[in-house]
Amino acid sequence: MVETIRASFEKVEQHHEELGKHFYGVLFSRAPETRALFPVNMEVQRSRLLRALVHVVQMVDQTDDLFPFLEQLGRDHRKFGVLATHYDAVGVALISAIRTFSEDAWTAEVDAAWHEAYEMVSAAMSRAADAERGPASWRGRVVGHERMGWDLARITVETEEPIPYRAGQYLSVETPQRPRLWRYLSPANAPRSDGVLDFHVRAVDGGWVSRAIVAHSQVGDTWRIGPPMGRMHVDPASGREVLMVAGGTGMAPIKALLEDIAERPDPPRTQVFVGGRTWDDLYDFTTLRKLSYSNTWLDVIPVVENDDTASGAERGTLADVVTRYGAWADHDVLVCGSPPMIRATVSRMLVAGTPLDRIKYDPFTMD
Known about the structure:
Blueprint (H helix, E strand, L loop, with lengths): L1 H11 L3 H15 L12 H17 L3 H14 L7 H19 L5 H24 L6 E12 L2 E8 L11 E4 L8 E3 L10 E7 L5 H9 L5 E4 L15 E7 L3 H12 L7 E7 L8 H9 L4 E7 L9 E2 L2 H7 L6 E6 L2 H14 L6 E2 L7
Parallel strand pairs: 7-8, 7-11, 8-9, 9-10, 11-12
Antiparallel strand pairs: 1-2, 1-6, 2-5, 3-4, 3-6
């Protein structure tokens, strides 16, 4: 089934735009009520569909990682009011889209494999959603908006009750400026009893939501926030030293993790590499450096690709510099940042000898 699914998806992946249009056309035809769950402009949503498909196809034979991801996704979809019948409609739309663009490559074997795979996916999501007894979403009020650069802002949100997330996880948010367009953001602080969340948001090119948040969020805005997702976590029972690699706003979950570790009675020795194209991209490095000065278990190294200042930073990409220091085979490794940065860093570390099962990173980090 795994080999059939992957071979089949390779043949249709190049038609990603048409695939998304076909999928949503069939879905809205079979379940018209689902149209109200999505934004007017479907461009971002079609892109997210492809990324989700790619991720599931890549992980379909890694059930220890895939099922926790699907269960989180099922709990997250409760915020939309998804019903059991919607899963059936999604399955029909998905298989119709893949069959259409597979053309002559669609066989009875391929059909059976996709039906089996989708049944596995939908069953895991629906079971987790049915078992969840917590809120489907939370409301939060923006209580702070601070520009940290021309394209970067720190948004502080106070929720009506604390959200049960774990340091390093991410949350989906919906803002009044972009209704029904959800974006994933990682809190830059560990959970607090007052329910306050700090988010670092960079306005990315073509980012409908991120640009609106940075430029137009206002104190008093009400956000909807979905359940926590992601597997970024430092296991206190591991006993291993920790390596953290952060690029751009990937610094946010790293700060939350360090805040959490600092509260432990015996923090593990932790090495952090923080990188960017220029020194200005290391927008909150001063805070991390101060934290390292007051905690002997922590060491922080800045990395820049282009540096004309006397900053003392390491030169090169994060992938270059981290692997220059070694294979880190005896460390627990966490990588946070843009998808290209994560791909480059993880690939180089695997070549250098870092075991795959020691590396944690999350797939959905794009606008």
